[in-house]
Structure formats: structure tokens, C-alpha cells
Amino acid sequence: MNTFESTFSPTRKRLALCILGITAASAGFSGVYASEPVSFGSLSDFAVLSAAPLEGGAVTCTDSLIFGDVGSSGAPASVVQTNCYIDGTIIAPVSAQVLTDFNDLYDTVANQACDEYLTTLAGQTLEPGTYCFEAASTTTDGVLTLEGGSSDSWLFKIGTLGTGALTGTDFDVVLSGGASACNVTWWVAEAATITRGDVKGNILAGAAISMTGVAPTSPFEGRALATGEVTLTNLDFLGCEGDSGGDNGDDNGDDNGTERAKCNQGVGNGPEDCDPGNSNQGDPSRSNDELGGTPGNPGRKGGNR
Questions:
Q1: What is the b/e burial string over 101-132, where b = at least 16 CB atoms within 10 angstroms of the residue's CB?
Q2: Residue 255 to residues 137, 179, 249, 251, 264: CA-CA distances in angstroms?
Q3: Helix/strand/coil percentages in the chain, nearest 5
Q4: Dihedral, CA atoms, 85, 91, 93, 94, nearest 10 degrees?
Q5: What gap in Å lies between CA 249 and CA 272, rounded to an integer?
Q6: Per residue in 11-34, pLDDT tens?
Q7: Read out DSSP for 92-105?
């Protein structure tokens, strides 16, 4: 090493460390974490899946509409429909490969590193990233805002220490800036119970999933995949299609992350070609159009967009 190198080498090292520090500080200041969307692979087309072991799967759908495939590890009779219309394939029992793929996905997501630990969801505005709760998460009358673009993703892990349920009552998730419901994933160590409110995203539960009266003025968007029973009551459930969010299947150029076209539930068949007819699930107060309308009326006629 010559005199010049011996004199300035330490300076170069300090400068390099300084630059690295500035870069790291700048990345931290932005508040945006690197987060890849959860890949659902062979499970992508399931809106609802009960992957209970030992053929113990069960799906109970009451006064509801489901757009997407429905699967259960139980016998065909384990999928119970009461005033329930399913626009998709019912698969019961699902194959052993589906169960393996579900368990692999659940374990893979469980092992993803956390960017930040939270103690509450209510009142938060969160940029893309992986957010964790060591134990349970319970939200009542709260609003969570997710701020990002259509390709950004959010992962919420509930119960990272091994136990913890997700409970939401009158809990709303607001998507801002073009964020996609299909790029939001909720991994739960135990059960997920959602009552009313407007929760969005894919739920991966280590026990049962129960959803009642969710998103009363628009469809719930996402997936409900569980180790236990899935119970849906009084809601419209719009499943995702494909691995992540993207074009919703219509041709108006928007990108809200829901790839299944919404279906007109009025009298007569809209252009979506998936109308079951005059279906208000036996309750005259329910609209025939999942995004609003008058029972017995074709609703939006031109199809929801």
C-alpha cells in the first residue's frame, strides 16, 4: 500500500459507511417496506375453502351470494346452501393436493418476516408492508386505511407467538390510491370472526372463519380459506381470480384488483351472463343487485362496473 492509499483508505471506508447509513435512513424515512403479494397458486380460484383435516371440512352459506369456487375437504353434503347462490364450481371433497397446497401456503406465510408490530388496527393509515400482532387482534367500530397503488401489497399476521384470533365488529378497511383488495392478506393463527363492517382481503385462518353481514352496501372482496369451517351469512362475496390484484375483468380501464366481473342480481339476465334470476334470498328487503337496486328490478341493467 502506498502513502496515498494508507492515508485515504480509512477515509474511503468511513465515507462508504456514511453513504450506506444515509441510504438506510432514507429508506426508513419513506415508511414503505418491500412486500411481495402472497401467491395463491393452485388455490387462486377458490373464493371459499374449508381445508379441515380428516375430511372435516364444512361450508355453510346462508342468505348470501358467492362469486368464485367453493371447496371443502368434507363430503358433498358438507357444503350447505340456504338461500345461497354460488356462481362457481363446488368441489367437495377437494383433492389431497389442494389440502397440501393450502397447508404449504399457510406455513409459508406464517414464516414471512414482520416489518412492524402493531397493537391496534383502528385509526391506522398504513403503507405497503407486513404488519404483525403477537397475539389476538380485536377491532370494534374502527377504520383502517391502506394507502398505495394497485400493485402494492399488505400482509397482516395475527398471533405470531402461536395463538391469536382476528375479530372485527363494524370494522372498515378503506383502500386508498388504487390499492387492491386482492393484494391484502390476513394470516390468522386461530379463528377469524367478522361481523358487519367492510373488511377486505384474503383471510388465511388456522381455525374457523365466520363472516356475517359484511360490506352491506357492496360485495366483500377477497378469499376465505380456513383450516376449519367457513360460515357466511347475509353477505355478497366476490372472490379474487389469479394470484394477485389486477384488472377486474371489465373493459372500462379501471384497476381495482377484483378480477371477477360483478354480477347483476335483478330480474332477467344482464350482460355478465351470471344472473340467477329474481334472487333476493327470500328476504324482500334484500336488493337483487349486490351493489344496490330495488328487489324485483333489473338494478343497474348494464351490469355493475
A1: bbeebbeebeebebbeebeebeeeebbbbbbb
A2: 30, 9, 9, 10, 20
A3: 15, 30, 50
A4: -140
A5: 10
A6: 444 434 333 333 333 333 334 444
A7: SSPPHHHHHHHHHH
Degrees to nearest 5, angle at CA 301 with 295 and 303: 110
User: How confident is the model at residue 37, as a pLDDT?
Assistant: 84
Q: What is the CA radius of gyration of the chain?
A: 22
Q: Is 189 helix (H, G, I), strand (E, B) or coil?
A: coil
3-state secondary structure of 301: coil
Cell numbers for 208, please give them.
374457523
Question: What is the enclosing helix (H) or strand (E) of 87?
Answer: strand 79-87
Tell me the residue length of the chain: 305
In 3D, which of 177, 178, 222, 225 has the Cα closest to residue 200? 222
Q: Report the 10 Å Cβ neighbour count for 276.
A: 13
> Which residue(s) pair with 91 in the sheet?
71
| Tens-place pLDDT, residues 119-137 | 999 999 999 999 999 999 9
Quick check: 299 and 280 in contact, CB under 8 A?
no
Residue 128 preceded by cis peptide, ω within 30: no
184, 203 contact by CB (below 8 A): no
Q: What is the rounded distance in angstroms from the CA atom of residue 245 to the CA atom of residue 177?
A: 14
Distance CA 152, CA 228 (A): 29
Element (H, E) at 20: helix 3-30
In one letter, which amino acid is 33? Y
